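User: My instructor asked us to take a sequence, write out its structure as tokens, and then describe one feature of it. I'm not sure where to start. Here is the sequence I was given:
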Amino acid sequence: MDLKVIIPQFEGRFQTAKKSRKSGRPRYWTVNGQGLYNASMHYTLRTKMTSYFHKYLSKYIVEQILQENINHIRDQVYIGSRRKLSISLDIYDVRRGKMPDVSNLWLWTKWFEDALQETGVIEDDNPDYVEESGRTRYHFVDSVDKRKLVFHIGFIN
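Assistant: Let's start with the prediction itself. The structure tokens for your sequence are:
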């Protein structure tokens, strides 16, 4: 069983300030793990942003994962079970000048695992439930309307 959660035309940035002092325009932060934890962002902004992306991803999880699939996951994956989950991500994005390294996009998977827990799909995102995570792959598309994130949830023994 391979479940997919698709986030169409995903939001890849977060508004950090309504107006910048210099330009007078909104200031945005582009999703990038290195940029989040390099100590340049205040912890309250980091908390607010993390909460925002948990809710953002949760909306799609609730819409796309059926209760019968949640029941199947819970029947298969529990403390003491040999079956665990594997979570991976395919990013479909338009190639642009300065793109984050694929390894710096681990945040999407972390936020997705947290959102799975918050929506009740999994009991926890620790190794008793999620044993494999982090494969992230770019796929380049030719238009903005084809941008999407595709999360894959599979079982491993």
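For the description part of your assignment, you could build on this observation: Residues 2-156 form one domain. Try explaining in your own words what that tells you about the chain.
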